[in-house]
Design goal:
single chain, alpha+beta, Pdz3 Domain, four-stranded antiparallel beta sheet, 27% strand
């Protein structure tokens, strides 16, 4: 029920905001609106305003704003209107462009507003400058120990691990004078950062960076335990702090995730801390098939938990800074989305990574279990995705209409109705095929076709 409700809320908000963009800009441009609909298909609820009929329809996978005199090639042209001054088709090109662009623009605005509100209230995650895992053979191996608190670097105070990373990144390999507090006593050490090639966490692209060979202590903690999962059967509870997997210490959520993933079908010990006491419990990881970004199938272990970081704290931004960083996060997410789409099209990322409504619903339910803030951030991310997808130059999407307007601006006249009709029909077929493919991927992820193998 949580998954269904969360999905309806997320999709409903995104559609409402998107269509409001078209609606508000149409009204500002003096275009009459005949119908404002959330959803498609048979109408569940309707009410009529002075000029516009407002509808809630059965299929919650989109919506539309039907404007007076709006030309629709699939229906054979624009409907006649008694007031030509309110017709969409008679408005200047720039006004029609803004009306269409306003839908995706509002999704970008929604994302920026959500990011700003979360950053201004909850804040950004900040990790203490406490040393966790120290890499063997790295610059820190001979100097730092797990649990060391880094106090100063080159006489500059260090308040978080982010401060340390900033100094290391700007060092260009020059030796650093590091003051650490160990067992209540401060010691001064010299560390020389080294240049390494790391992988982008999203697309695994190589990039150069300076590091000292140590990471922060981000003690992993169990967030949500799925019902009927191996974790529940083993006795794990939300709030348990995981210290080791199979006898191997873990310092970050990534350590814990990798420790579980590399043990598909195996029974192993988890060392946890609960209410100040250490406990060891045996858990058997389920075998799951996962796909790498290039489409390779691999077996991984899963125990049915979400993982959070116990040692993280959150620092809210001041209001103006929250607005600035909200816009910055929206831009960063837009770049990631565009890059991801290009990598799928260019086959750098396997098309099995394309998800549909089932995946969105599943993730919305999981984020809702982790809290309102997580669900809000998920909504912002999907809002950016929706905006980018709608701006693709595909007929039937807003980007397709914008492309027609650009062609009209270049030619000095619109394309013929016949050409637009053919393009719209092609776009419709492509969108249906994409939706079917995304739904197929969703069903494969939940192993809905397992009966065919039995």
């Amino acid at each position: 029920m949580t998954t269904v409700v969360s999905f309806i809320i997320v999709i409903g908000v995104l559609i409402l905001i998107h269509e409001l963009g078209h609606f508000i800009m149409a009204r500002l441009a003096g275009v009459g609106v005949e119908r404002f609909s959330i959803g498609f298909g048979p109408v569940l609820l309707r009410w009529r305003g002075k000029e516009t009929e407002y509808c809630l329809s059965v299929i919650p996978m989109g919506g539309y704003v039907k404007m007076v005199g709006e030309e629709n090639p699939l229906e054979g042209g624009g409907a006649p209107t008694s007031d030509p001054t309110k017709a969409f088709a008679t408005k200047p090109l720039w006004a029609r462009f803004l009306i269409v662009f306003a839908g995706p623009a509002m999704n970008f605005v929604l994302a920026a507003v959500i990011f700003a509100i979360v950053l201004g209230t909850v804040g950004r995650p900040v990790w203490p400058a406490v040393v966790g895992k120290v890499a063997e053979g790295g610059p820190a191996a001979a100097a730092l120990k797990n649990g060391d608190l880094i106090v100063r670097v080159n006489d500059e105070p260090v308040g978080s691990w982010e401060d340390l990373e900033r100094v290391v990144a700007s060092s260009s390999g020059r030796p650093l004078q590091v003051v650490v507090r160990r067992a209540g006593v401060e010691e001064t050490l010299i560390l020389t950062p080294r240049k390494v090639v790391t992988r982008d966490p999203i697309f695994k692209e190589p990039k150069e960076a300076w590091e000292i060979g140590a990471g922060p202590q981000l003690t992993p903690q169990v967030g949500v335990v799925n019902g009927g999962s191996p974790a529940e059967r083993a006795g794990l509870k939300p709030g348990d702090v995981v210290l080791a997997v199979g006898g191997e210490p873990v310092f970050t959520p990534e350590d814990l995730m990798l420790g579980i993933q590399k043990r598909p079908g195996q029974t192993f010990d988890l060392t946890i801390e609960r209410d100040g006491q250490r406990k060891t419990m045996a858990v058997t990881a389920e075998r799951k098939v996962d796909r790498t970004p290039v489409g390779e199938e691999v077996q991984v272990g899963r125990i049915g938990v979400s993982i959070v970081t116990r040692t993280v704290k959150y620092e809210p931004y001041p209001p103006l800074a929250a607005v600035w960083y909200g816009g910055l996060r929206t831009w960063d997410m837009t770049v990631v989305t565009v890059k991801g789409l290009w990598k799928v099209v260019s086959r750098q990322i396997d098309s099995s990574n394309i998800g549909g409504p089932i995946q969105i619903a599943s993730e919305a339910g999981r984020q809702a279990q982790e809290g309102l803030g997580s669900l809000a951030l998920f909504t912002a991310i999907i809002s950016v995705n929706l905006a980018v997808l709608n701006l693709l130059p595909v007929p039937m999407l807003d980007g397709g209409h914008l492309l027609f307007f650009l062609i009209e601006a270049v030619l000095g006249r619109p394309l013929s109705l016949r050409k637009r009709e053919a393009a719209q029909q092609l776009g419709f077929v492509l969108l249906v095929l994409l939706m079917v493919f995304a739904l197929y991927n969703d069903l494969v992820r939940i192993d809905a076709f397992k009966f065919l193998r039995q």
